[in-house]
Amino acid sequence: MANNKLTDLAFRKLKAQDKEQIIPDGGGLYIRVRSISDGGAVSFRFRYLLQGKQIWLTLKAKTLAEARKERDDYKAIAKQGIDPATEQKLSAERARAAQLAEQAELARQQALTSVSGLFERWVMTDLQQRKDLAEVQRMFAKDVLPIIGGINAQDIRKSHVTDVIDRVKQRGSVHTSRNLLKLMRQMFKFAVDRDVIEFDPTASLSVSKVTTKNTERDRVLSQDEIRLLKDQLPAAGLMPTTECAIWIMLSTLCRVGELSKAEWKHVDFDTKTFFIPVENSKNDKAHTVYLSDFALNQFQRLFAFRQSDTWLFPNTRDSSHVCEKSITKQIDGRQNSTVYSNRSKANQALVLPGGKWTPHDLRRTGATMMGNLGVHGDVIEKCLNHTQENKLKRVYQHQELKAEQAEGWRVLGERLELLTGGNPNVIPIKRAS
Prior knowledge:
This protein has 17 helices and seven strands. The chain is of the alpha+beta class. It folds into three domains: 8-94, 2-Layer Sandwich (Double Stranded RNA Binding Domain), CATH 3.30.160.390; 115-210, Tyrosine recombinase, N-terminal domain (DNA polymerase, domain 1, Orthogonal Bundle); 223-420, Orthogonal Bundle (hpI Integrase, Chain A), CATH 1.10.443. It is elongated. Residues 339-344, 394-398 and 422-433 have low confidence and may be disordered. This is Tyrosine-type recombinase/integrase. Residues 216-410 form the Tyr recombinase domain.
């Protein structure tokens, strides 16, 4: 700064006079004090040279400290070959553009009053971290928005909601109808909390009455059914990778979604482990499966069939994993004559004596077999990667029981090897006392 820099005291003592005053502060900064007749207003100006031409720029600062900082900023800009006057105009334009964008966004938010708009806002605000976001969007796009998406959210009544649910029930998708009602309830509660609507149209609707009571499945495949499954699979017309998936789910107790999203980097053939990271786990708990020889063999078969260097089960473009429902649909399609009509020879190829079975039933079957083979319940819970329900145990007991888990998977694998190895003299499992 130059030697003629004003002190704070000198600045405060500046008074308007009959004539306008231009007082230097150093470094190209000047204080302009208008005459008494012009009101005596104080402003700040910055003088600089550009291509040999002297230019004056009025600053936006209101105080001397602000003016000095603004001057220093413009001096730094000028050293870069940028005209401070041009930068000032651009800065004002950017601020104006930001203000207009903010106003436009506010108007857009205020306009989001239709059910489709409400759903979009709910997705952007609350659902971005949900693992099932894509599935929620698919369900609404298929069954909700085409029916009530264009209606003002404030005008939605129970009849609109039940209309959506009844349409889903009429096509036999009772489980989907339950989930949709629960999701719509979450969305409308979100709207109430943000004063978008005054009341929740789903508030007085009972899930069990509007849809049906939820029934807890307890399907467990018998040993004879596992033998039969081994014989039926070749004629079922499944993808070879899906056959591997069936045996992997049964022998590792992993969930179908966790397996569908797995990457080859999660499988270590040397250490014989299959790692399920937090982002793939249903309960947000990382999990390591110690592979039995039976399970390892299925992963090796799957590797031989691989169509991707990244995904165990890639989508058709190899841009991500396969849809989490893909394996389930393939299995379901071989147990229902009304599905996959173009596969009439195979649409009941996987029907078993005990009734319809699902990928989750394989997980339950494997856990049950472990118990019947004498594996302790706490170890099985660890193998299932369940969250401990007992609060005291959850807080104070953190033992991982890795060796016990590995042994549990080993004995299960040996039993499955006997059941599927063509040996007709397998001794049935006796329930542990």
